[in-house]
Amino acid sequence: METEKIEVKGIKNGLLIELRDGDWDEQKKALMSHINENKAFFKGAKLVLDVGDRPLKSPQLSSLRGELSDREIKLKAVLSTSLVTERASQDLGLEIKIDQSSHRDEKTTIDSMLDGDEAVFLERTLRSGHKVSFPGHIVVLGDVNPGAELIAGGNIIVWGRLRGVVHAGASGDLEAVVCALDLSPTQLRIADKISVSPPRKAKPKPEIARLENDQVVAQEWKAGT
């Protein structure tokens, strides 16, 4: 598995990575190589690993957890359809499901005060090869470099420079917007409408892109826009 093919998904509990079928040692090597190349992105993250039906034993998972811990990454859960892997994960105190129950009381309280949608928050710079997708909104506190990709069912907000590929309203939301302090994407897409940024001549400024008359239009991003 090539490292650039590793897909990272933002979820409520952290980051989700799905490993394809293949030799475990090669998969693990590719994963760690990808993490080593993107240390700033993964540092401090809680990782949920989906290994499919691959049977893994406690020593294999323990070794992986140790290597992740050395890089300040917490292996939170291992998802698998293999009973062997599930037992090994439980023996190590790892979760085997993405449990949302811990959020219920908090969500009930929030919903009673605010009408909001789910979002994933990433406090890191996304470099070439990173791909983050989420059914709700995506908020990035950092830059999105060329070669990185964001796909959101809702809005995309980048508190930094946006120079990668972004797709807001991926589920068909025509009201979705893309905001950034420096809006210079390689490609910007809202629902099924695509726009490519022209070379910037003026000094960068906060901008918001939305659909107007079936076209992607960018304007100054100010309070209330």
Beta-strand residue percentage: 25-35%
Number of domains: 2
What is CATH's topology name of the largest domain?
Pectate Lyase C-like
Residues in helix, %: 10-25%
* Content-based structural category: alpha/beta
Taking the alpha carbons of the first and last residues, their distance comes to: 43 Å
Low-confidence stretches: 100-114
Helix segment count? 5
- Largest beta-sheet details: 6 strands, mixed
What is the CATH domain class of the largest domain?
Mainly Beta
Please list the strands of the largest sheet in the order they lie side by side. 5-7-9-11-14-15
Could you tell me the radius of gyration in angstroms? 19 Å
Q: Quick one: overall form?
A: elongated
Write up what this structure looks like.
With 225 residues, the protein is α/β, with parallel strands linked by helices. The chain has a 6-stranded mixed beta sheet, with no helix packed on it. The protein has 5 helices and 15 strands. It folds into 2 domains: 3-91, 2-Layer Sandwich (Transcription Regulator spoIIAA); 117-220, Pectate Lyase C-like, CATH 2.160.20.70.
